[in-house]
Structures are given as structure tokens and as C-alpha cells.
Amino acid sequence: MQFVSTRGQSPAVGLSAAIAAGLAPDGGLYVPEMLPAARELREGAALADTAADLLAPFFAGDALESALPSICREAFDFPVPLRPLGNGDHVLELFHGPTAAFKDIGARFLAGTLSRLQAGKDQDLTIVVATSGDTGAAVAAAFHRQPGVRVVVLYPEGRVSPRQAHQLGCFGDNILALRVAGAFDDCQAMVKQALADRELQAQMPLSSANSISLGRLLPQMSYYAHAALTHHAHTRRRLNLVVPTGNLGNAMAAVLARALGVPIGQIALATNANAVLPAYFNGSDYRPQPSVATVANAMDVGAPSNFERLRWLYHGDDAELRAAFRAFAVDDVSIRATIAAAHASRGELFCPHTATAVKVLQDLRARGAKGDWAVVATAHPAKFEAVVEPLIGEAVAVPPALDALLRRPAHAEPMAADYAALREVLLR
Which residue, 32, 38, 28, 24, is CA-closest to 3? Predict the structure, then answer.
């Protein structure tokens, strides 16, 4: 299969080349030249096997094709349970990996692909990644001490939780954390600028591990497929989803899985006060905005990169795209209230991002939504103890893997929100 840019000004490339590059030369995002036909997937298969079956057409004819089953087994070695909440509601828990966030799944898969592509090369590959909280730690954990690769992580200083910040700086070795005096959108813009800098690329191979990378996006379809197939096997009904989203990568994976024939029903998008997507789906023009800080900080994105891919999938037809989805913004007051009420009434613990999706589902049910729904739980609440614990009046138990990271010393270098400063660091 060949892959092209969403902007249509770059030549088609194979999957390995698209993953290695991260971003297309014209600044667009790589997408398949055409979507493969709907897949017949096995209900009841293990997650790794579902992933390999689902992704096989994208790897067909590529140098990585024979390694796909092994990559899937390496990446998908922890559970992603679909847990019932009652009355047709469920929660899809994606936070049981080493850094307690859903980003572990895509990052570990990407590490499996790039490690194989990098084998035998003389020059190290530099992965430059922007994070609004969870991506950076997942990427750092996946690539830590991996030969031939160094990782540079940019995060907005003061706009991630204390535990997220500690995770980002606790690895050392081949991982460098940069705390940027700006917003996530500044970090993301600098990463894109570096990947498009041909003079820099001539001096050092660069790639990305953000959701702009196909190596992150494609494997994220797998947990949606596994959950929907498991649900369908027991109920013969489609599973509807509420996906908390910032940069639109996680939601885009659900959209692609549905397009490939996975039994997914409606997909609702839940955002925080950064309401660019709800405004668009309510009929306004798509207008990126400066991001604002919220308690659901991993979704503090004012210019969601994967919107380009969403538009590509719907051939740029805004009317058709708006008809296919709904998007809702949830403010901090409502996020906090949802966390407190869920714990008080049912003993449930949700991180701020998951609580955003829970609130959207509650509102959908109040408006008469039928069928079976799952909210996507993107991170463990222990990563946001400063928000969650005052609301529930007790400490949140820390998962062992996260606790081990928090016990390590951490350091991050300060950096201005300026591309020249990043370029200097990369060349250092």
C-alpha cells in the first residue's frame, strides 16, 4: 500500500518511509492512498491478533510486513478492558500500560517499527515530540535506552500536571525533556517546523512520535476494534463511543476503524473549553484558536492536527463531515462536578479527560440517546491527583508502574517558545 499527503503536494511513499518521516515534505499528514476494503475480523481473538489482522492491509508489500505480528505482540501486552457501568454504559480503560495513559499503545507500536527500520544504520535517529501531558512520557518509556534512537520531548511549562511533568523528565539517557515557555500549540508548531526543515534533515535524520505519525495512529484502531468485536460477540449490537479528544488522533483512530467495517456505531467527540471542534461541528468555519489551560490539560489544543486527516476521509465535504459526528465542549466546573458525583454515587474514579467524556454521555442520555455506549478512559486518575483528590476527599492509589517512575529523579531543560532555540538543541 502507498501513502500520500493530506495536502497532495508530495509523492506517494511506502509505509516504512511514511513512518520514518513522520510528516510529509509538503507539511501534510500521511494517509493511505485509498482505504482497504472492510475487513472480516475474528470475534474473540486476542488484542494482538486483532491488531495484526486489522493492520495487515496497511503493511502489505512493505519491508515491515513480516514483522507485523511480532510488533503487535510486543506492543499489546497489557489489558484494555471494556468494563460495564450499567444501563448500557461502559468504560473502555486504556490506561493499564507502563505510563498509565492510552498513549502507551501507539508509542510502543511505533517503537517496534522504528527499531526495526533503524537496525544497522550508522547515524542515530532523533525523534522530536510535542506533548500536552501524556504522549511524551509514553514515547520516552517506549524508546528509553533503545540503541540508535534519541528522543527530544517538548512540553508547555506549567500546563501539565506535576506527575506528568515528573514522568517527562525522569528517564534521562537517550531522552531529553524540554519545558517550553508557551502552550502546547507552540510546542507542536516547533516540532512540525523541525520536521519540515530540509537543511536540518540533511544533517540528522528526524522523525515524530505525535499522533501525526502513522506509526502511532494506525495501531490505535486496534483497541476500538477489539472492544467493539467483544461487545458485538456478546450482544450482537454495535458499540457507540464518546472519545475525549484534543489533537484528534485517538478519535481519528476510531473513525478509521469504523470505516474498515468494525461494528462501531456513533462517535461523539468530547473536548474541554478548547472548543474549536464543537464550534465547527455546530456549523462555524474551522478556525484554530490559541489554546486555553484547563483541568483536562492533555486536551488543551487549539489547532488539532488530525483535522486534516478527518477532512481527507470525507473528501473535504464539510456538510458530510458535520453530519457524521457530534462534538461537545465541557467546562472545568462540569468536569470537576462529574468527577465528584461519579465517586460519591458509584465509587468510580475518573481522570479529568475521562470525566469530560462521562459528562457528554450523561447529556446524550438525557437527550434520549439509545443503544450501548462506551466512554474512552484515556489516563489513570492517579496522574491528576492535584485535581481528583480534593474532589473525592481521599488519596488515589498509584499503579505500581507509575509509582516506579515517580520514584526516579527528574530533570527538564527550560527553553523559549522559539524554533531557533529548538534547532540549536537538536544540533547540539
Answer: 32
CA separation for the pair 50, 36 (Å, rounded): 16
In the sheet that holds 413-416, the strands lie side by side as 206-208, 125-130, 149-156, 175-181, 413-416
Handedness of CA 69, 227, 77, 142 (dihedral sign): positive
Of 374, 334, 2, which Cα lies nearest the Cα of 223? 374
The identity of residue 178, as a single letter, is L
Instruction: Give Cβ neighbours of residue 347 (< 8 Å, ≥ 6 apart).
Output: none
Which H/E stretch holds residue 130? strand 125-130
Phi, psi of 308 (to 5 degrees): -60, -40
Task: Confirm if 191 and 207 have CB atoms less than 8 A apart.
Answer: no
Residue type, 162: P
Measured distance CA(146)–CA(143) in Å, rounded: 5
Buried b (16+ CB within 10 A) or exposed e, 131-168: bbbbbbbbbbbbbbebebbbbbbbbbbebbbebbbbbb
Q: Are 90 and 365 a contacting pair, CB within 8 Å?
A: no
pLDDT digits (tens, 9 = 90+) for 178-230: 999 999 889 989 999 998 899 999 999 998 887 888 999 999 999 999 999 99
CA distance 122 to 3: 27
Rounded-to-integer distance, Cα 321 and Cα 19, Å: 27
Global pTM reads 0.92
- d(Cα 126, Cα 21) in Å, to the nearest integer? 11
The three cell numbers locating residue 166: 515528573
Q: Which three cell numbers stand for residue 246?
A: 484534543
